[in-house]
Amino acid sequence: MKVTDMGDRTEEGIRPLPLNSYTEAVDWINGLLPFGIRPGLERIELMMERLGHPERRLKFIHVAGTNGKGSSCAFLTRTLRESGYHVGTYTSPYITKFTNRFQYDEVDIPESALLEMANRVVPLVEEIAGTDLGSPTMFEVSTAIAILYFAEMCYPDVVVWETGLGGRMDVTNIVTPIVSLITNIGYDHMDVLGDTIEQIAAEKAGIIKAGVPVVSCVEQPEAITVLKNTAASKHATLYLMGEQFRYERLSVDAKEQHLHFKGPFRDMDFTIRMLGEHQCKNAAGVMMVLEVLRQYMAFLLEDEQMQDGFRTTFWAGRLEVVREAPRLVLDGAHNPEGAASLAQSLPEAFPYRKLHLMMGMLANKHHQGYLKHILPIVDTLILTEPDFRRKMDAEALYELVAELQGTEAKADLEIIVESDWRKALSLLESRTEREDLGVVTGTLYLISDVRAALLHQTDSEKGW
Predict the structure, then answer these.
(1) Mean predicted confidence (pLDDT) in 423-438
(2) Would you place residue 460 in the very low, low, confident or very high pLDDT band (cuts 50, 70, 90)?
(3) Do residues 63 and 162 lie in contact, with contact meaning Cβ atoms separated by under 8 Å?
(4) CA-to-CA distance for 75 and 19, rounded, in angstroms?
(5) In a 10 Å sphere around its CB, with 0-12 CB exposed, 13-18 middle and 19+ buried, how is residue 331 labelled?
(6) 3-state DSSP call for residue 43?
(7) What is the mean pLDDT of residues 110-138?
(8) Gyration radius (Cα) of the chain, Å
(9) What range(s) does the Mur ligase C-terminal domain occupy (predicted)?
(10) What does DSSP assign to residue 161?
(11) H or E stretch including 60?
(12) 103 and 2 in contact (C-beta within 8 Å)?
């Protein structure tokens, strides 16, 4: 359904009728996608004002960073749930269905509730669209719906709140959290956030609020300087990995990792089933957040329940084994830092004879840095395209690979260009023999489609 189908066009603009179904609601929200990503808080601030500031009735844990946000949100949600708390979780993009991004106690928002909340914001969107601010964007509307859902329908004890892009000017920065987490800093969304680590760090550090403690696993010295300066200027206590807390990997195999956490208040051993050392860093950052909640905010967090939470955390599309014969793994690494983690984690977690890798990307990413990490370990590279409007053509991706093939890739690397991801997936499956490993990686839009196909999820939706 197009926006223009929702009402009569008048001199004042479009006057939408009430949305009558879940499908209409999602189509209306996605119909705002052409307004793009417009950093700034003016529109969401006005929406919250008109709604009576529901965000002020909630406790948030605000999560920013280049990679690891979704996994960290999953660790936080699961451990707090195991500890007996009711938890709201707002993340993006979704893997299977639009409702994935709004969860209460790890269950998606009911379709009826999404419809009700969408109808609440329709008149606000129309009102603001008629001002100099212009129409709220798809992400702004989704964020407003999330706040309404948590504040007026399910009342969680705490909301795990993931940024969409950056931090300082991100729509989610409308809230004042009880603690913030900045996972890491890397080169991503450089067209919006800047092209240096310092610039990107400054945008991420924008979620730091006056007097609100912040935890970070950032490692680059220049990014650390930015975080320390920002935290000091806001009188916010900074807990930094490598200084106030650290972790040690005790053991690792194809199914789990055992860690020792050393923090300012106590030490603890625990286990995670998320694979890759980058997940150890994410888990350590989350453990420090939980320690802040326990130590200073009277959260009752028992060791055994926390350990159960970490051990049972799962996040789709992150080194996820979706098939054993042939052995296929999905991982949404889509930037240089993600590729570095993937290249390190694959041979460690999944011993193999040959690696066959299928990838598809969006057109606005820093792909050469990505390829420099991936090409040295790949035997067969299958280049394809996600079903998404901002996809990168497989042929254009091949041109980037060709530039690096003589210096970065294996001498006998086989490259296949197949723009249809379904045919590409069939090629990957046919080439992955018993002792080999097949990997699908790149943009989460590709991961979403492939995962739905492999797991036969017929209700899988498509969007951002």
Answers:
(1) 96
(2) low
(3) yes
(4) 35
(5) buried
(6) helix
(7) 95
(8) 22
(9) 317-443
(10) E
(11) strand 60-64
(12) no
